[in-house]
């Protein structure tokens, strides 16, 4: 069953560009994973250093047992303690209905 992670980040002032570069590298690399569905990165319009990532995968077990251990994630995970002002807030959600505008 698909699973969506909603992750909130509070970035240390002055570390915003490093955060974005590292995260975008991971987001770009994971696009080729077969269980990946989508990701949307949001910025808080009131706080330039607060972000929310909405990330959907086909399987929670795959994320925990395979995806989190991919080599392309190492630099990202290693940098988190030095670029985040606080621990990530991670929520786990199961989609029940998806509506998208058709183009």
Task: Walk me through the structure.
The chain contains three helices and four strands; from the N terminus they run E-H-E-E-H-H-E. The protein has helices at residues 16-30, 60-65, 74-83, and strands at 3-10, 36-43, 50-57, 89-93. It has a four-stranded antiparallel β-sheet with strand order 2-3-1-4. The model has no long low-confidence stretch (mean pLDDT 95).
Features:
103 residues; alpha+beta; four-stranded antiparallel sheet; 3 helices; 30% helix; 28% strand
Compile the SSE list and pairings:
Layout: E1 3-10, H1 16-30, E2 36-43, E3 50-57, H2 60-65, H3 74-83, E4 89-93
Helix pairs in contact: 1-3
Helix and strand sequence: EHEEHHE
Mean pLDDT metric: 95
Strand content: 25-35%
Question: What does the largest sheet look like?
Answer: 4 strands, antiparallel
Q: Uncertain regions: pLDDT < 50 for 5+ in a row?
A: none
Gap between N and C termini: 27 Å
- Give the strand line-up of the largest sheet: 2-3-1-4
Instruction: Give helix % range.
Output: 25-40%
Measured on Cα atoms, how large is the radius of gyration? 14 Å
Return the structural class. alpha+beta
User: What's the count of strands?
Assistant: 4
Shape: globular
| Total of DSSP H or I helical runs spanning 4+ residues | 3
């Amino acid at each position: 069953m698909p699973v969506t992670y909603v992750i909130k980040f509070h970035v240390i002032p002055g570390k915003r560009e490093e955060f974005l570069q590292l995260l975008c590298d991971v987001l770009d690399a994971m696009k080729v994973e077969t269980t990946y569905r989508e990701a949307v990165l949001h910025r808080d319009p009131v706080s330039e250093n607060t972000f929310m990532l909405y990330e959907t995968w086909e399987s929670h077990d795959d994320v925990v047992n395979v995806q989190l251990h991919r080599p392309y994630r190492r630099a990202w995970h290693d940098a988190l303690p030095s670029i985040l002002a606080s621990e990530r807030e991670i929520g786990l959600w199961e989609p029940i209905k998806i509506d998208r505008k058709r183009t």
